Amino acid sequence: MTNELVYRGAVELTELMRSRQVSAVEVLEAHLEQIDRLNPVVNAVVTIDEDGARAAAAEADRKLAAGEPTGPLHGLPISFKDTARTAGMRTTFGHPRHADFVPDANDLHVQRILDAGAILLGKTNVPEYAAGSHTFNRVFGVTRNPYDPSKSAGGSSGGAAAALASGFQPIADGSDMGGSLRNPASFCNVVGLRPTPGMVPNTDGTNVFCPLGVAGPMGRTADDVALLFSAMTGASPEDPFSVFPPAGEVPAKEPSPQDFAGLRIAYAPTLGGRVPVAREVLDVLDPQAEALAGLGAHVELTCPDLDGSDEVFRVLRAATFHAAWGDDLDADPALFHHLLAGNIRDGAPLSGRDVLRAEEGMTRLIREAARFFERYDLVIAPASQVAPFDADLEYPTEIEGQRLESYLDWMRAPYLFTPLGLPALSVPAGFTPSGLPVGLQMIGARGSDARLLRLASAFEQLSSCSSVRPQGAAVL
């Protein structure tokens, strides 16, 4: 029997704990029981510290009873993505050579989340070095979809998304270079936000000058994502491009589907004919676009300028990978999974001129996007070109009869928007006839993260999909 606490939202849980209707210890024990029951099937949480979490939960209850200050995430258990460094807890990056690596310090976003009162529980599974949108590695194996364990949970934040959907934790962190927050959110019926670059400082990597990869929040609802996001944002002197998010105005009322009335919405079901999309995905998204039009939104079939975005993304990604691991691959050709090894090799022939031209292309795309959002308020598109596929596959090789030439081809729906420097999220939109989740990608103007989350919350009321719990893992 599932303890209902594990499917209470993060916002609701914090209110229940502050009002002393439930304790942090009770919340933690409910989630531990859920992990013990279902994680052997889903394989989302790969490292866990029950004793440390119990001690932290007891301390959280003590602080509240003593009237001491508490943070906005007080008492919420969280397992962090296994590419995020956690002091005293192993961080494997999904690679055997780091199987026993224990950092001595937290990454900045981890520290901010813990400082806000969250309780460190464990780590969530990732692909090797988070390089891919299907979560499997040689250390922990494959993470399975809670809605159907024979299917992929997506990636690279697949363990995080599956943990949320399974009721293992109410909030989760993730990262996104080419869709690693948006794709697993789509596959697992949760919300994943890729923030505007700079909203969450880039202090955890070795290069602050590449804005492709960002850390961001995940949750089962947009309101829960907004709560976590508030703890992750804020400038850091270690990232000169980081910013304090604009305060904005306090909304006069709660989000409502009526918020879409009058909005100018660009609907890009195939990104202007640039990508193939499975019919079962479009059959979910097309009616949602029609529903928004029915609310009074001005929905138009159009797309921002994405010309050259594919080359920009692939060049900068390959250059980043080769800079990070090229020497290692040269020294040991068998060190990396063959898909990642191929991505690393793609960077070898690139010149400095190639990289600078890609950056010039990204500059043009950013400027064109700014002009586009003078005419439109929102873009909606698929978060993934396919529904969750068989977990035993490395990746889909065909969409609607169109053969895919490379591993990256099925991930283009999210990553073509990455070089534009915009906030983008996936919000639950519906299910295929076989019961697999489909997410709607929503993209806003640069810096409009808070507004985008508000619209996602309004959309949740329209689609009512977020409340549909997975049954696949529970019945096995």
TrEMBL record:
<dbReference type="InterPro" id="IPR036928">
    <property type="entry name" value="AS_sf"/>
</dbReference>
<feature type="domain" description="Amidase">
    <location>
        <begin position="26"/>
        <end position="453"/>
    </location>
</feature>
<dbReference type="InterPro" id="IPR020556">
    <property type="entry name" value="Amidase_CS"/>
</dbReference>
<protein>
    <submittedName>
        <fullName>Amidase</fullName>
    </submittedName>
</protein>
<dbReference type="InterPro" id="IPR023631">
    <property type="entry name" value="Amidase_dom"/>
</dbReference>
<dbReference type="InterPro" id="IPR000120">
    <property type="entry name" value="Amidase"/>
</dbReference>
<dbReference type="Pfam" id="PF01425">
    <property type="entry name" value="Amidase"/>
</dbReference>
